[in-house]
Each structure stands twice: as C-alpha cells, then as structure tokens.
Amino acid sequence: MEVNGRIAKSQYRKDFLSRTRKPKVPVMPIITKGPLRGFYAPDYNGGSIVNLLSSLIHAKGGISPHSELGSLSAASLASSERIVYLCVDGLGLHQLKKFVESGGGQSFFAGREYQTISTVFPATTAAAVTCFSTGVTPAEHAIPGWFVHLQDVGVVTAILPGTTRTGMPVFPEDHDLSAYLKIPSYVETVKAKTVLVHPSHLLESKFTNACTRWQKKRGHTSLLELEQQIVGFANEAEPGLAFAYWPDYDMLCHEAGCFADRTVNHLAEIDKVLGRIAGQIEGTGTTLIVTADHGLVDVPAENLVRMSDIPGFMDSLTIIPSGDARHVSCFVKPYKVRAFLDIVSKKLYRACMCIAREDLVASGVYGPGKQHPALLNRIGDYVLLARNGWGFDHALAGSGPSDLIGNHGGMSEDEMLVPLFVVKAG
After folding, report:
1. Is the sign of the CA dihedral 342, 345, 346, 351 positive or negative?
2. Which terminal residue of the chain, N or C, has fewer Cβ atoms less than 10 Å from its own Cβ?
3. What are the C-alpha distances in Å from 372 to residues 41, 162, 183, 241?
4. Mean pLDDT value across the chain
5. Contact 241/56 with Cβ under 8 angstroms?
6. How far is CA 28 from CA 44, 297, 413, in A?
7. Which structural domains are found in the chain, ordered by start?
8. What is the reported pLDDT for 211?
C-alpha cells in the first residue's frame, strides 16, 4: 500500500516488526535462579557486541579469542573491502521499536532488516565503547562503569573525562594514562587500515588516546560532518575498518527523557542521515553496520534515590559509591557490613537487588577472557542493581540533585538489548 508514492506508515511498522532476525541462541535469557534472578545477562556466547567486534576483527585479518557473532560471521564479510561500524549512543531496541511504531524511521530504520544483540554489563557507555574501541570484554578492560573507583589513587573518577566527582583532573597532563590503565586491544591486530571517526572534542582526549590505537583519527561536530566522514571513508581505495560514534541521542535521553519530542526529533534526524549514507555508499564495496552501546529507561524523579539522604548509608562506606545510576558499586567498611546490609534490606528493598562482588563476577556478566588485574578492586564489595523504574543519585552531599530523566547501567532488558543493522557491501 502506498500513499503519495511512499509506503504507508502502518506498513513500515509491520515490516519493521517482521524483519527481526532471531539468533540461534536466545539473546539474554532471563535469569531464573540465584542472586541475579529476574535480570538479564549479556549473551557472550555469540550474541553480543563483543562477538560483533570479533567478527569484524577476524574479517580484517586480526586476532580475537572471542567467538564471532552467530548471525554475522567474518566469512560473510569477506567481500567487504571496507567496514564501518557506527555506534548511536543510547539507542536501545525498545526505544527504536516505539519510534518506528509511532511512524518514524522511514528513511532507514523502518525499512530494513535488523538483528537483536546484547550489550555488555554494565550497560553503560564507558564499558561498551571501550569494547567497541578494542574488542575486549569488561573483564579484560576493567572499566566497570561511568564512575570508577581507582583504589591505588584513592578516588572515584568519571573515567572518560578523567575528573573527580568535584570536577578536578585526576592525573596531571604528562601522566601516561595508557601505561596506568593497561587496556588490551584486539582491534590493533587488524591488518587493514583502521580509522576512528569521533566527535572532535573527544578525538584527542586522554582516555581516547589511552585505550585506542587507531592508525587514523577523523573528527566531526555535526551529523552532516559524520555523514561526510563515513561516506569519505567508503570511497577510499584502501581496505579498512572504521569505528564511528555519535553521542548526542544519549545526551538527549538523559536530559529530556527517551520519548520526549526533542529526543524523538533528533532520532528522526539520525534516521535521515543514515538513509542518505546507505544510498551514497552503495557500490563502493563498503559494509555499514549500525548498532548501539546500551538502551535507557526513564526514571521518575520520585524513584531516583538520593543515597546521601539515607541515614547511615554513606557512613557505612569507605568511599563514595561508583558505577552508574542503575548499578552502584559500594565499598563497605569491614566493621559496617552488617549495618550496610540492614540499611539496604530495610530502606532499599523496593529499589534494588544487592549482590556481593564475588557472586557477580562468578556469574560471568563481565564476560570471558583474561581478567584484568584491577577489575576486582574497581567493583564494590556489594553492587546494587536497580529494579524496573528505579535509579540512584550517588553524588556528593551538598551538590544539587540529579535532574537526569533517562538512565542506564543496569541489567534490564530495555538497557541490555540493542539493534544491529547490516547494510552489506554492494
């Protein structure tokens, strides 16, 4: 059915919902027993962004010990001279479905087949983008949240910008962050040219330089420039692998909410740009892959628990909590463990599940691979996993309350499932 030469919106919605490709292994089965009962685990057995990176790395002659994505093998990409994978920060599958069901996505999303894969745990940019940049799991890179406890430095840092909770730089300018973090990279084993297409203000950040080893770096300051960089890469003669990143959708989800007009309008602009890119790279021998690092969930203000307001809670900790709004690492004073657990069971039982570090690590949610020596020191003695509709504000006492509406970092289906679009080389 067509309306004015275009497929009707209702048909787009039906097409989108019918185009999901089911992986051979169910993505993220709900956990039915044990301390994580009711949550969803990443599917590192061929159904996660880690496995996607393994396929891409192998396709370009590199080495990764992780299994390939079950629905996109390296062999299936053999004819692709160039591959560009774009991470739209924050674009969870449930958000995209609602966007398309409301009539959006007619330039790209609604008319194309997609696959469902999982992100990593925690479902947060710092952990997932480090995976996109290197191909390693959170167990291997030890970046377990936006806010990370650096035990040997004695601070909790926002790891990507490299600042304390009060906004001060953690390390001096001449500090070798790469030598400190010791993040391995399988991407750097790729035999073809590698290109990072990043927001210009992040392109030469200390963290970007510390955790990524790209042969070429190219910046952008708008969706138009992102489009130009991807199309330019697609038209180059040399074979290669490029990682492109767009952060603004996630920012709007945080600030306005996942389904606010501003957020939805921005996703519509992304859809238009992707439609143009797909058309312009046709015939270039380039495969375009579009996915995300995590989804978000809106948390009502009344369900955003300010931890400094809970009597006795902060006093039971050795340092301010780390992690994200929907997964919180708590480092507990040994003589306050009983008091801490009592507070959680009485004051926070509706908001979260509390799990000991040993149980969380043993569950495998941080992924396979050689465990980074700093991992255990960066995960709290106890981790609070937010239940549906809840979140945590663990800022310093005296600072203003969090005004973020969209939040993530937890282990719900909406945070963990992301779409995967593959536009094969032609």
Report:
1. positive
2. N
3. 20, 20, 8, 26
4. 92
5. yes
6. 9, 18, 8
7. 2-297+413-423 (3.40.720.10), 301-407 (3.30.1360.180)
8. 81
